[in-house]
Amino acid sequence: MALKAEEEQFLPSTPGKFKDKWSSGKNRQFYRCFASTSTMFLWALFLVALTAAYLSFQSFVDSGNKFFSAACGGAHWEKQIRSSAQIHRHNGFAVLVTVPPVSSEATHVMHLAAQAGVRYAMENPQSYVHSNIAGLVSLLEASKTADPQPAIVWASSSSVYGLNDKVPFSESDQTDRPASLYAATKKAGEEITHTYNHIYGLSITGLRFFTVYGPWGRPDMAYFSFTRNILQGKSITVYRGKNRVDLARDFTYIDDIVRGCVASLDTSKKSTGSGGKKRGPAQYRIFNLGNTSPVTVPQMVGILEKAIESEGKEKCD
């Protein structure tokens, strides 16, 4: 029993701690002092860190408030917007580029914002419905109540031609067989804009873009992925159409698209409504923006191979 009592002196009071039998009173007093000093140091360090965090957060909030008040709110911001929307030359335009609500200085709206891409629409359909349909309706709602109403030019897509086999495509072709959800949202946009044109007198011009390419192009476009795979020595999957026919796209350079957009603004007629009420028939137009010179996918790959002086490994599917 005596031996057991002696052994218990070595057992730690807390698991994992070693109990030293040689600890004298002075040692224990020293440990208490050291522990107390360490605790005070840690508390001081904690308070310093807390103070620094608060000051940093306060600085962030102040700078954020200044940024947001300067960027999108307040009397000064409103004054800047109204000043920038003034027409500064004879017969000039004040063009709003897809940022509702519509300003009452805005004579024209160029609606280019959308969720683009065919493949990603299968993964996130709600995003396409939200941007391409709900977003467009919000813009039209704001435009119909503006006084005066602006003329609207907006980006549709050649994808609305869907399963049509006849080429080249014509604006008079039927577009009731979309082949993707993305195409369906753009087709819905054309029907919706026609409705607002008919009911509220909004002047509408829809532009069907054909595979736009050039500087600052979308990174998900085929020519980017093809180029990357060629440079990395990876194979390229070349899809073929019905009866193994080479697929072709009508590529359109960005500068030509810009010219088409500006020309559409220049030739747009005024909307005929006021305060949400139609006063008479309004202009409604649909244009293809392309050059009717389709390029097959193998041809495009050949052009890329020549430009980067390297051959790709084609894999047909």
Automatic annotation (TrEMBL):
Query: Membrane-crossing residues?
Result: 33-57
**What name does this protein carry?**
NAD-dependent epimerase/dehydratase domain-containing protein
Segments forming domain NAD-dependent epimerase/dehydratase = 105-270
What's the family? Answer: Belongs to the NAD(P)-dependent epimerase/dehydratase family.
Q: Which domain of life is it from?
A: Eukaryota
Gene Ontology MF terms: isomerase activity
Q: Cross-referenced InterPro entries, in alphabetical order? A: Epimerase_deHydtase, NAD(P)-bd_dom_sf
Write the record's keywords in alphabetical order, separated by commas: Isomerase, Membrane, NAD, Transmembrane, Transmembrane helix
Keyword Lipid metabolism on this protein? Answer: no
Extract the Gene3D superfamilies matched here: NAD(P)-binding Rossmann-like Domain (3.40.50.720), UDP-galactose 4-epimerase, domain 1 (3.90.25.10)
Q: What species was this sequence derived from?
A: Buddleja alternifolia
**Could you confirm whether the keyword Transferase appears in this record?**
no
